[in-house]
Write a structure and sequence with these properties.
heterodimer, A: about 260 residues, mainly alpha, MetI-like fold, about 80% helix, B: alpha/beta, 6-stranded mixed β-sheet, globular
Chain lengths: ~260, ~260
């Protein structure tokens, strides 16, 4: 049942991608008498630049993921294993950043973070890409916090009780008993968060980061040829798909493997 | 380090006092009064069985003795620790070194091997030498007849084998009191016997044990003293023969009538 749904989803995804590529090529073909290969030839020239833009997206997504995961892990533990004010604070942070629109958070970071901070004699610059990383790290933090909470509460409370009876303290229990079991279960949803993040990363082009979408727009205006519109964005789609699909696939594989029995 | 932090009360405990002394213990969960003033004493080297209908507070009482549950009222002394007055983590840990517990669902750590399960607490909590702990762990696993299973994972073992690993794990702390919480209730009838044999041997070696059990015949054979609990109270207690052959209380008679 579930497998069939997965299979259908995969087929649909590939079908959609194929349509996009065909559309892009036919668009290029229709507007000119030349063959489509000649039509998209200028793309080759821009390829290194577009790839570089894509690598900027990858780099920003990885940085945002690392920062978001570090803070998400802390507030995830905070909202699960602590009581009182710490718990409420971490719960509030999680819910706020998990449910806020990513683009709005990005705009807030761009507008609220100054372009540089001066601490005594030190000038710390905040270029747009750094603000972009922070803006994306915030929703990642909220989502990772929920992943951590889910992983921790999936371990039966009897494991805590058994460790307690063996005189392990809270941190030993977490480190030796709970986390090794919970991490396995957190890994697939954590990878899913990353897949969502990489797909949201081109949003940073709106706030002035030189990422793949920004490069694509520059290429298109430099060429001044609307026939290239579909091939250029089609190429970006393929790049993102080629990067995301294996991650999503691995996540699904691990999900099945580490499924709660 | 931790032993020096024992509370003042425990200083008063003399060696001739019972090793476990529960006085007037009350415990409620919300509006549900689970224990309504329970008292019991266990002497060193003695095996005591707690029997009674489900929900009568047996498991709760056991958890009050090693401080997994805090009592509302009354006093609990176990192995020289004032359990009712535990505040600091260090005091709780000092208590658990002396009072070990085995659970109905074994609660082994599934990601660790049998040997790692047994060695975990002595190394992490008691900071004992790894080689020495390993030697002791292997000896204990032999004692519960699980030699050769050291590197197996709990999931690869039968229920009875897992429960014996849990017993070895509890013994690895070298406790002075063992608490058994319905340790055979989750087992197949065939594997019940091997676990009971292990417990019987422990009792014969003089390990102070408190057993919550539904195995009446086993309780009669092994225990030196029987306590019968019903609705949060100890209704009747006595030595096994008197208890089973000539129960005084109406509720005890009714319960035994159902069980036997």
């Amino acid at each position: 049942m579930n497998n069939q749904a997965n299979w259908r989803c995969k087929v649909l995804m590939r079908f959609g991608l194929a349509i996009v590529i065909v559309l892009a090529l036919s668009e290029a073909h229709a507007t000119s008498q030349e063959s489509w290969i000649d039509e998209i030839a200028p793309l080759w020239k821009w390829m290194p630049l577009l790839l570089k833009g894509f690598l900027v997206d990858v780099g920003i997504s990885i940085a945002a993921m690392l920062i978001g995961t570090a803070f998400g892990a802390i507030i995830g533990v905070g909202q699960t294993l602590f009581k009182g004010i710490i718990r409420i604070f971490c719960l509030g942070l999680t819910q706020f950043f998990r449910n806020a629109p990513w683009l709005v958070l990005l705009f807030f970071c761009i507008l609220l973070i100054p372009h540089q901070i001066t601490v005594f004699d030190w000038v710390i610059p905040f270029p747009p890409w750094m603000k972009g990383i922070i803006g994306l790290a915030l929703p990642v933090m909220g989502n990772v916090s929920e992943v951590v909470r889910g992983g921790l509460i999936s371990i039966p409370s009897a494991q805590w009780e058994a460790a307690d009876a063996l005189a392990l303290n809270k941190w030993q229990t977490l480190r030796i008993v709970i986390l090794p079991q919970a991490l396995k279960r957190m890994l697939p949803p954590w990878m899913n968060v990353y897949a969502v993040l990489i797909m949201a990363t081109p949003l940073v082009s709106i706030v002035g980061v030189e990422d793949s979408v920004t490069v694509a727009r520059s290429v298109l205006s430099a060429e001044g040829n609307t026939a290239l519109l579909m091939p250029v964005y089609g190429l970006l789609l393929i790049l993102f798909y080629a990067y995301c699909a294996p991650i999503a696939r691995l996540a699904r594989f691990l999900e099945v493997r580490y499924a709660v029995k | 380090m931790q032993s020096s932090k024992r509370s003042e009360d425990s200083q008063a405990t003399a060696t001739d006092r019972p090793i476990v002394e529960v006085q007037g213990v009350e415990k409620s969960f919300g509006s549900n009064r689970v224990l309504k003033g329970v008292s019991l004493t266990v002497n060193k080297g003695e095996a005591v069985a707690l029997i009674g209908p489900s929900g009568s507070g047996k498991s709760t009482l056991l958890r009050c003795i090693n401080g997994l549950i805090k009592v509302d009222k009354g006093t609990v002394y176990a192995s020289g620790h004032a359990v009712h007055a535990l505040v600091r983590d260090s005091e709780r840990i000092a208590l658990r070194k002396d009072v070990s517990m085995v659970f109905q669902q074994y609660n082994l750590f599934p990601h660790l091997t049998v040997l790692q399960n047994v060695m975990l607490a002595p190394i992490q909590v008691l900071r004992q030498d790894r080689a020495e702990v390993e030697h002791r762990a292997i000896t204990l696993l032999g004692k519960v007849r699980l030699q050769g299973k050291e590197s197996a994972y709990p999931g690869e073992l039968s229920g009875g084998q897992q429960q014996r690993v849990a017993i070895a794990r509890a013994l690895a702390m070298r406790p002075s009191v063992m608490l058994f919480d319905e340790v055979t209730s989750a087992l197949d009838p065939e594997t019940v016997k091997e676990v009971l044999t292990t417990i019987r041997e422990l009792v014969e070696e003089g390990m102070t044990s408190i057993l919550v059990t539904h195995e009446m015949r086993f309780a009669r054979e092994v225990a030196h003293h029987i306590f019968f609990t019903d609705r949060g109270l100890i209704v009747e207690h006595g030595d096994p023969d008197a208890f089973f052959d000539d129960p005084k209380d109406e509720r005890t008679r009714e319960f035994l009538g159902h069980m036997l």
